Amino acid sequence: MTNLETEALAAGGALAAFLAGRLLLIRRVRRVEDWMRRARRGEPPPASELPGRGLLAPLAHEAARLVRSLIDARAVAEQEARLRQLGDSLWTPERLREHVRAKLSGRPLVVVANREPYRHVRRGGRVEVETPASGLVTGLEPLLRACGGTWIAHGDGDADFASADASGRLRVPPEQPQYSLRRVRLQEEDARGYYEGFSNEGLWPLCHIAHTRPVFRAADWAAYRKVNETFADAVLHEIDGQEEPCVLVQDYHFTLLPRLLKRRRPDARVALFWHIPWPNPEAFGICPWQKELLDGLLGADVIGFHTQDHCNNFLDTVDRFLESRVDRARFAVTRDGSATAVRPFPISVDFAESPSEDPVARAAADRRSVLKETGAEAIVVGVDRLDYTKGILERFRAVERFFEKNPDWAGRLTLVQIGAPSRGGLQDYRDFAERVRAEAARVNARFGGGAPPISLRTRHHTHEEIRRYYRSADACLVTSLHDGMNLVAKEFVASRDDEDGVLILSRFAGAARELRDALIVNPYDVDEVSSAIAATIGMAPNERALRMTRLRRQVRENNVYRWAADQITELAAVRLPAPSATAPGATAL
User: Fold this and answer.
1) What are 113's strand-pairing partners?
2) 300 φ, ψ to 5°?
3) How far is Cα of residue 225 from the mean position of the Cα atoms in its chain?
């Protein structure tokens, strides 16, 4: 072969190698191009499909890093969008804290309630801290924990004042102080007449349709007025020197307090929340001092109730008994130049989740322990104060009826009834507690053998003890004969992070307006309630889960922080008159 032929062959080989290399390079570039195009569409293939060596390896490596950065950035943006969307509906302690700071602009917040969140009692030579069983405490304490401020309450623990400073003040909660508690000392006779007498033998049965006759005595009314004045002095002392303070008054124990405060501090913003039902005008007219009570309430800038029905009843009552202008379009009352907004604020609970724990495993462990403890195969739980409005006796009769209709479940199903002692100073309540014990014993004797039909626990339980029963139960029975809200229903739902369990709920509880995925029953109809228990036992797991998922969404999005925020928003919007322009005590919206 000549030199010329050799050179030509070499040139041809080089050209072929060049063309092959070029083709290979083009293929690899197109592979990188296709990989990046798919990644841009949000469908990145495995990085192993990129060239791992050769001329394009560094470029492929950088492309993979760039795409990974874009994917991470997109995930962060989507997460932020989800959080922003959630933030529009989900209230947290942090969000409430910022909301209160913005709305009140640093103005002090004072809560007034008869019930204190912590009481000190002597037991066996030791002083112990006790958390009273109270829906009011359940609803209010998260607000104070989140925002700080002062809670003013009757100090009724026998070691309360030995555990506070000379003014009855201390910081709480004991384990991690976040707000101040100011205890008010009352004379025993005044406390009995104001609390046991006028409040709980008079106003409580007056407002609850539970067929218990209210009792009104002049001596109790005098004590009630005196205690309201004592609390007014305590509040005024706390807000002395503070500009435009905000005071949240709680419940039927302090109907006179708003007017007493506004007369002496017209610059204060005052709201009152009524935690129980408000009756119709005919029922309220039974009270001999109806006009004094209504006038005291209308000293508030804002009055809140659980439901719109209660707001309507209140406006009807004011229209019937007082000289005033009732504006039903704006839901406001004007009297003697001062205006009061009347609004529904359905109270709720703290919806705290524990993502670090496996909720299904925890619920299963709780259920195993409770079933072993009771000897039952199925558990229904009831949690109440021992109060005649809660429908406990009707509940026991419904359980009895369930066993009559389903005898094969006798000895296999147990109602665990937690009944916290309540108002033991009143004979009616002592008698009722005895009736509850006697009825439980009667039903248990009738269906003896195996697990007891009713396991009655009449002592105070901690929140964690109660949550253990909530998490282990097939169903929670809330059979109130009449209730403003009933937070047990919402506590049960909030506790079921395993998204199981069924809520059986009285249609006479305020919670029934919101928790529509519960089994809604008439507590007076024992057949209907017993059928609901049977439906719970036979309900398909997917239906239980679907109902509980919807219930939890409702309680999560309408939690106690939203309840508090709505009231603070309404109170902060009150337009206070210039001191020189209006008589003392008047205010305007």
Assistant:
1) none
2) -75, 150
3) 31
- Do the domains 105-186+223-348+566-572 and 362-556 sit in the same CATH topology, yes or no? yes
* Per-residue DSSP letter, 196: I
- What number is the average pLDDT over the span 81-93? 63
- Residue 167, classed as helix, strand or coil, is coil
Cα 250 to Cα 257, 341, 516, distances in angstroms: 10, 16, 27
Give backbone dihedrals phi and psi of 533, rounded to 5 degrees, phi first. -60, -45
Strand 109-112, strand 413-420: pairing: unpaired
| CATH no. for 362-556 | 3.40.50.2000
The helices-and-strands tally (H runs, E runs) of the chain is 19, 18
CB 225 within 8 A of CB 256: yes
CB 224 within 8 A of CB 189: no
Q: Which helix (H) or strand (E) holds 181?
A: strand 179-184
Alpha-carbon torsion (536, 537, 541, 545), positive or negative: positive
SS3 262: helix
Structure tokens at 147: 């925002």
Instruction: Find, among 249, 262, 332, 335, the residue nearest to 295 by Cα.
Output: 335
State the DSSP string of 133-144: --HHHHHHHHHH
pTM (2 d.p.): 0.81
DSSP code per residue over 58-95: HHHHHHHHHHHHHHHHHHHHHHHHHHHHHHTT---HHH
Residue 106 backbone class (left: φ over 0; alpha: ψ -120 to 50; beta: rest): left
Token digits for 240? 């002395």
CA-nearest of 504, 533, 530 to 517 is 504
Residue 338 in tokens: 């001062």
**Do residues 480 and 523 touch, judged by C-beta distance below 8 A?**
yes
User: Using CA of residue 190, residue 270, residue 333, residue 570, what is the dihedral sign?
Assistant: negative
User: How far does Cα 133 stand from its chain's mean position?
Assistant: 15
Determine the Cα–Cα distance for residues 516 and 12; give it in Å rounded to an integer.
84
Instruction: Give the start-to-end residue ranges of the domains of the chain.
Output: 39-75, 105-186+223-348+566-572, 362-556
Handedness of CA 226, 228, 229, 231 (dihedral sign): positive
**Residue 261 pLDDT level (bands cut at 50, 70, 90):** very high
Reported as a single tens digit per residue, the pLDDT across 225-241 is: 999 999 999 999 999 99
From CA 387, how far away is CA 47, in angstroms rounded? 68
Is the CA virtual torsion 14, 19, 24, 30 positive or negative? Answer: positive
**Cα–Cα distance measured from residue 580 to residue 290, given in angstroms and rounded to the nearest whole number:** 32
Reported as a single tens digit per residue, the pLDDT across 155-214 is 999 999 999 999 999 999 998 999 999 999 999 999 999 999 999 999 999 999 888 899
**182: which 2 tokens?**
């100011």
Q: In what order do the strands lie in the sheet with 332-335?
A: 169-172, 179-184, 150-154, 109-112, 246-250, 269-273, 302-305, 338-344, 332-335, 325-327
**Who's near 169: CB < 8 A, 6+ residues apart?**
180, 181, 182, 183
Enter the tokens of residue 324.
Answer: 């005033």
The CATH superfamily holding the domain 105-186+223-348+566-572 is: Glycogen Phosphorylase B; (3.40.50.2000)
Give the phi and the psi of residue 77 in degrees, each rounded to 5. Answer: -65, -40
